[in-house]
Amino acid sequence: MPDSHLPPVDQLLSIAVGALGGSERQGQVTMVRAVQQAIDNEEHLAVQAGTGTGKSLAYLVPSIRHAMDSEAPVVVSTATIALQRQLVDRDLPRLAEALAKELPHEPTFAILKGRRNYLCRYKATAGWPEEDEQDQLFDPREVSATGRMVQRIQEWAEETETGDRDELVPGVSEQAWRQFSVSAQECLGANRCPSGAECFAELARARAGEVDVVVTNHALLAIDAMGDLPVLPEHEVVVVDEAHELVDRVTSVVTGELSELTVSLAVRRVGRLIEQAVADQLQEAGEDLKALLAAAPPGRIDEMPQVLGLTLQLIRDSAWRCITAMGPRGADKDDPDKAGQRKAAFTTLDDVHDTTVRMLEAYGHDSEADRAEVVWLDAGTDRRPPMLRVAPLTVSGMLRDKLFGERTVVLTSATLALGGTFDGLAAQWGLGDAKGWQGIDVGSPFDHPRAGILYVAKHLPQPGRDGLPQQYLDEIAELIEAAGGRTLGLFSSMRAAKAATEALRDRLDVPLLCQGDDSTMLLVKQFAEDEPTCLFGTLSLWQGVDVPGPSLRLVIIDRVPFPRPDDPLTSARQRHVAARGGNGFMAVAANHAALLLAQGAGRLLRAQDDKGVIAVLDPRLATARYSGFLLGSLPPFWRTTDPSVPRAALKRLASEPTT
């Protein structure tokens, strides 16, 4: 129960809103009370809070209050760097100052990232096993560019106080950074490392253990929850912001990868630590894998081909022989250089061995319903060879046991109630029918029916696989002309975005930018500052664009964003749900589409005075049997299928004077 000596949460929120120059919003008040109640009752809570609700403040106020009460930090996890930076650079400093006089001390906070994000002092100053040279393009310009980055990192290493990679502006390539960082598995440990006392990652973790609010990301949250050793300080409460991203981020953390490069890296790292003949066996097995993958078609592997199965067994057994040949893991603890080499070798060998075991164990089940993981071949590129991947068909059990089983979790986003219910995401999180949680929608401060029109182009043909039909291009051009530019075009693929850009750039008399023309940050800046400008992009833009004001009056979505039918993971998950008696299409494909569609539509209204049109060119949103579910996932815009309505509205908006 709350400590009577601390001000009630409503009072703290009122003080914070007043100090920050805001106004009280009913959705924010409802949310702050619900979060406080969930913490008090030790129950999980899912909160859908529309843009403009002020949800960051609504969960930070009760989080800070609980941290003061319990003397234990609250962890806030986000999906994007942008939100992390907003919390640490803007929201938390202002909130801490506003509440300082009302609480026992001024609230404190820190950001904590994975070890790979911090410079390793020991690796920067001592010899370390060579990294994967084959990862490089043998292009002199690329090599010299990497060399310049390495030199810049070395100069920065002499002066940085945090060792945080994000301090490096402009950024550096992964290839350059890898020479100065280690993973958690490769780390020698603070007690054994000669630089342990001044380790940037350990110092960041120590700071996190002393503050009230620790800001981290979903990947690190998953590693902490599912790993053997804790990464985050002990905590009782977690707030998961951008919770619609949680399942995908956790899935990425637990996805295994295997290629000839990962095998050869393990061989190089084991180097002279074991007899050459033992390492050669692993090298030969890796070369066999390389030849197999080069000839195999990409995609999901439903039945393990015999020759691939034998090759994976050979890699598994060869990796184990290398591990055994290296002897006890704690050897050479008094020789840091040797210990570093051994730790790096063990890390890569363990990864190769454990990944092959997972791939082999993904087969041999009596039915599809019993299968736990899916294996697929990811086609290579000019820069990267083909790669086998293995991922779980669901992470619900992991989340239920490891995340929700140990602490109180508050999940929030503007998009959680798909089809008007939390059931879809709750099932993916592992909550499902479990007791001890509730979902609430606190609404939005925007008057959606008055501020926006949802136009579905019912008269257009269904989208095909052969690119954008001419009717779609004509529709896009006419809508943009009516809006006088001011358009964000969100396409289901980069190919479609580029095709539309090429087809319309000369046809329109307004500037047209396309994702990839420059950095996304610069493109969005140009789009926001020059009102007539249009910006076309793909899914990665959908959550990254925040442009309030008259620069954005029209959001065009080319098609309902279902996952590709040949996507290995989503298609396998769909089939798995069906094998267990569920509706695979609705549980996986429709949920996926509803989430992205809602995120895309959410780009339009970002400030109280914003107005405009969401135009979905795909007629299935009006005609398909699942259209009600998708429409129920969107904000309550005024809806129409009449092409003249959005054009007239856009022309009126374009003629309004702007300040």
The major beta sheet can be summarized as: 7 strands, parallel
Strand content bin: 5-15%
Please bin the fraction of helical residues: 40-55%
Mean pLDDT: 90
Q: How would you describe the shape?
A: globular
CATH class of the largest domain equals Alpha Beta
* Number of individual domains: 4
Can you identify the CATH superfamily of the largest domain?
P-loop containing nucleotide triphosphate hydrolases
Low-confidence stretches: 132-139
CATH architecture level-2 label of the largest domain: 3-Layer(aba) Sandwich
Rg computed from alpha carbons, rounded to a whole number of angstroms: 26 Å
Q: How many DSSP helices?
A: 26
Number of extended strands: 18
CATH-derived topology of the largest domain = Rossmann fold
Strand order of the largest sheet: 3-4-2-5-10-1-11
Cofactor: [4Fe-4S] cluster
Organism: Nonomuraea turkmeniaca
Family: Belongs to the helicase family. DinG subfamily.
Domain Helicase ATP-binding: 14-286
Short description:
Its cofactor is [4Fe-4S] cluster. Helix content is 46%, strand content 12%.
Short descriptors:
4 domains; 659 residues; ATP-dependent helicase DinG; globular; alpha/beta; hydrolase activity, acting on acid anhydrides, in phosphorus-containing anhydrides; ATP-dep_Helicase_C; 7-stranded parallel beta sheet; Rossmann fold; 26 helices; 12% strand
Please tell me about this protein's structure.
With 659 residues, this protein is an alpha/beta fold. The chain has 4 domains: 9-108 and 211-251 and 396-441, P-loop containing nucleotide triphosphate hydrolases (Rossmann fold); 116-193, no CATH class; 260-335 and 342-385, no CATH class; 448-655, 3-Layer(aba) Sandwich (Rossmann fold), CATH 3.40.50.300. GO terms for molecular function: 5'-3' DNA helicase activity; ATP binding; hydrolase activity, acting on acid anhydrides, in phosphorus-containing anhydrides; nucleic acid binding. One of its GO terms (biological process) is nucleobase-containing compound metabolic process. This is ATP-dependent helicase DinG. Belongs to the helicase family. DinG subfamily.
